[in-house]
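Write out this protein's structure.
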Amino acid sequence: MARLEGYSALVTGGGKGIGRAVVDRFVAEGARVGVLVRSQSDADTLLAEHGAFVAPIIGDVRNWEDNVKAVQTVVERFGKLDTLIPNAGVYDFSDPFESIDGADMAEKYRQLFDVNVLGYLLAARAGIDALRASEGSIVFTLSSSSFYPGGGGTLYVSSKHALVGTIKQLAFELAPEIRVNAVAPGGTRTGLGGLPGDDRALEEIEGFDAMVAKTVPLGFLSEPEDHAGLYVTLASRADSRFITSEIIRSDGGLEVRGGGRRRKGSK
């Protein structure tokens, strides 16, 4: 039997990247999945791939009503909500702190934190009643930048560090009915985008794959699918019903990156 047979989930930002990989894996494991996306094209692609196993909702994670609608859609379509995965995010492409004009700081802060932090808080708040009814779980998408500097600029790294505290506090407040955990991926080949007006995508940065491969002990740039199984484990009551406030790092071993990685084939 699939590990999530009979489960219903909601993934925000599930149209592309890690979020899409999680949707695909959850469906493969037997779950029905609501997906909050920004565009009709993402919704159409999900329906073409998964049909009645998914329920796309077009909206904005920064909007309270859209989060409420997403939760209601899952409950109405699939009968309950077992797992909530706040996942949508934006990146600052490691822009140096001093490159941000002081007059622009507040606006850039709001643009990034409204998606990376507020969007997670709104999703969690919208899902509490349904998750308490099912004794379900929340699995946040964090980042290696939740623990280490250098994987983004000051605003991005600050936002990801903030979510560590969010998970701990929510795990404390929502126990025992709701478990709250996270997955923290490291360098991943995704189309993660930037703030309004910034058309860059993470996977298009020249030399990004080589930089990550050189930095991490495991020696390669990960794909979104490399992280998806961890969300399944944290969502599964059979596999993790005694786990809350846990952050699983899926980052190629950044904690030991100073250890001198051997090359394949060497002894």
